[in-house]
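Working notes for the structural subgroup meeting. M.R. asked for a predicted model of this chain before we commit to crystallization trials. I am recording the input and output together here so anyone reviewing the notebook later can reproduce the run.

Input as submitted:
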Amino acid sequence: PFRVSIQQEDSELFAPLRDLSTTLAVTGMVILALVSLVVFFGVRVLSEPLSKVSDAIMAVADGDLESGTDIRTRLTEIGRIAGSLSVFRENARHRHKLEQDAAAKYDAELRHQKELAVTINAFRSEISEILASLSGETGAMNASAGELNAAAQGAARDAELAKTSSDDATTSVQAVAGTTEQVSASIQEIATQTQK
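Returned structure, recorded in token form:
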């Protein structure tokens, strides 16, 4: 049997392993640096539009419905969020306009009701004055009617007295006429007898 023995130093034996280890470490660092750059720029590409969208959402939440959402991105999801924000802002504008219209309509209705209340109160006041005036005039008319009634009753009594006086005068005239006829008849009879 033959034996072959190789003697090699440790440094020589582990040199390829060390070279491989160094190459792997350098390659890992380069890959890590490249991944870090990709992540950094990727985050920047994502964060800038997301920041704009976030600022736009906060502006809408604070009531700013006029500032635009000029967010241009190639990222579909962020573009959709920006589009949804535009729709949300437009709907908020429309709702705000409807609220303003409703408030204006409510104010107009309130003014109309106040004007109507003033008109009704003025009408009631005028009617009260007219009724008070009519009440006074009715009292005066009742007093006048009472006076006219008393005058009519007095005239009726006077007419009754006049009738009674007239009846008495007629009776007296008839009595005088009857007496005159008797005297006339007596004179004729005396004249007839004196002629005989």
